[in-house]
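#lab-general

N.A. 3:47 PM
ok so I finally got the sequence cleaned up, no stray characters, all 233 residues accounted for. can someone with queue access submit it? mine expired

B.Y. 3:52 PM
send it over

N.A. 3:53 PM
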Amino acid sequence: MSEARKEFWNGVRAEVPLLIGVFPFGMIYGALALNAGLSAFASQMMSSMIFAGSAQFVTAQLVHDAAPGFVIIVTIAVVNLRHMLYSASLAPYLKNLSLKWKTLLSYLLTDEAYAPTILKFEKDGATPFSHWFLLGAGFSLWFTWQVSTALGIFLGAEIPREWPLDFALPLTFIAMVVPVLKKQPMIAAALSAGVTALLAYHLPFKLGLIVAALVGIAVGTWLEGRESPRGMI
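B.Y. 4:20 PM
back already:
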């Protein structure tokens, strides 16, 4: 178990720089959920059960706008589709784990946990205890998200509006994305998705995010297809 503990804490340490941006984001969510009309209990349970920041923000906004329940469910499902891609990417490294381990790790799999984990797996490959790295990264993020949400709910309107806390998350995602942009299709996909998100920002129900994701996937897939024949020659 010493090797397992080592990998666990390696995962925690790898996650720490990202937690700096996650903490204020969780506080903002807690305050926003209350302002949207959710109870303190429901707001905290969303963080514990859904454990997906972007989906929680969208849900709070849609609840505030009195959107139909069906729209809320479909929007959350689409926003979280990226986790299927994360799972497919990590599957070759985790395929030999038991169902209990896969279930636990799938719950803890988030953007911030995936980023350092895939970099480690691509560098070192799968080892008997490598999944403990993902456990450490995922658990540290989960714990931070629960605490920051609770603090945001507790402080509520006491958080000054002039504090630019909402800028922390974009910086966190930039820190996650940049290290993995190693090939032209990846860079093009990220840029096209970013530009599309800006252009489609005013679409209702946050549909701009969905459109941006689809554009990024399409551009990246198209460029990958163009490069493949050359790589086979």
